[in-house]
Amino acid sequence: MNFEVKLHPDTVKFLVDQDPDTKDRIKTGIKNLEIDPFKSRSRSGIKKLKGTKKEMTCIA
Q1: Domain annotation covers residue 47
Q2: Domain limits at 15?
Q3: What residues form DSSP beta bridges with 6?
Q4: Is residue 52 in a domain?
Q5: Residues 35, 22, 45, CA angle at the centre, nearest 5°?
Q6: Could you give the number of structural domains in the chain?
Q7: pLDDT confidence bin for 17, thresholds 50/70/90
């Protein structure tokens, strides 16, 4: 089961300005979040949302 990762418009603008290696690294991370957003990822800065219903949307 894949999940949907939604990006803030400012994030998209940021990605456009990055070098190809950085873009690829970020895109790989986002794809990994779509596959398993609940997997522990050290140094990612991702925090579980609080006060949500069982259905959760991941935002990167």
Answers
A1: no
A2: 1-37
A3: 59
A4: no
A5: 55
A6: 1
A7: very high
